[in-house]
Amino acid sequence: MAQPYDFISKIVSLGDSGSGKSSLTIRLCEGRFVSHHDVTIGVEFGSRIVPVGPPASLQYNINNPASSTPPTKSPSDAKPSKNTPKEPQQKHMKLSLWDTAGQETYKSITRSYFRGASGALLVFDISRRNTFASVTSWLNDLRQIADDDIVVVLVGNKSDLASSSTVSGDSTAPNKRQVTREEAEEWCQNNKVMGYVETSAKSGDNVERAFLEVAERIYQNIEAGKYDLNDRRSGVKGPGAGGGNAGRSVTLGRPDKGAAKKAGIAGGCC
């Protein structure tokens, strides 16, 4: 039986303990939220199959900035051409998720899991400024061990605790935000990190988006020939790798049924 994915990539989650890394993985893989989770010791694993490249990437507007050039003709004026290329066949990627421990006690163990990763979610808690202060150290650890081309997205988790975009100095106020979006985005620019996404593992808001951003950039790197798909150290494997029927593709977001069918996205979890 043919495998339900075209590529496999290793994705690591890193950041301070209590920032919600495990909750993000559980939300992505199982679609549920666990309010109390045991401290991760070493590493925990999960996996998910996601669509990469067009047409899904266009549908979800992932790493596809709109063209600044206006069309010369309206859609009604356009005439069908016999040479119009067919819509590309949807590709899928299996994300092998490595949820690493955030406690200092396990840091020497955690660092060893960065090797061979092609993507990373650098997670902090937007209601605890000290977790944001630590992301630079985590990024330095990652870049010392992982490949130079590793795709990194900064994730500000627990957005459900932020009822405002501004920082609140009152710990009893409904808005518990201690890090603004502007601060996080500026940090990304200064540290050459691909982008910033605010998520809530509790509500599920933007969780899939964060992982999709990483997966799509990895796919673009594959298309650009940046990985040796036959090299076990690259963090990305091509067709035929992994073996076995590992799962099914999943629906990311809630597109209409027609669009989902067109993009080749099916429900399920792996």
Question: Can you describe what's shown?
Answer:
- The structure is a single chain.
- The C terminus is likely disordered.
- The radius of gyration is 19 Å and the shape is globular.
- It has a single domain, classed as P-loop containing nucleotide triphosphate hydrolases (Rossmann fold, 3-Layer(aba) Sandwich).
- With 270 residues, the chain is α/β, with parallel strands linked by helices.
- It starts with 6 loop residues before the first strand and ends in a 7-residue tail after the last helix.
- The chain contains eight helices and seven strands.
Gist?
By secondary structure, the protein is α/β, with parallel strands linked by helices. The chain has eight helices and seven strands. Helix 6 links the parallel strand 5 and strand 6.
What is the H-and-E element order? EHEHEHEHHEHEHEH
Question: What percent strand?
Answer: 15-25%
Query: Given this structure, which CATH class is correct?
Result: Alpha Beta
Radius of gyration: 19 Å
**Would you give the CATH topology?**
Rossmann fold
Tell me the distance between the termini: 16 Å
Give the low-confidence spans.
65-78, 242-270
Task: Give the fraction of residues assigned to helices.
Answer: 25-40%
Query: Number of DSSP helices?
Result: 8
- CATH architecture level-2 label: 3-Layer(aba) Sandwich
Annotation, overall tally of beta strands: 7
Query: How many distinct folded domains?
Result: 1
Which outline best applies? globular
Give average pLDDT, whole number.
80
Q: How is the main sheet built? A: 7 strands, mixed
Would you tell me the structural class of the helices and strands? Answer: alpha/beta
**CATH level-four homologous superfamily name:** P-loop containing nucleotide triphosphate hydrolases
Region (Disordered): 60-93, 230-270
Biased composition (Gly residues): 237-246
GO molecular function: GTP binding; GTPase activity
Family: Belongs to the small GTPase superfamily. Rab family.
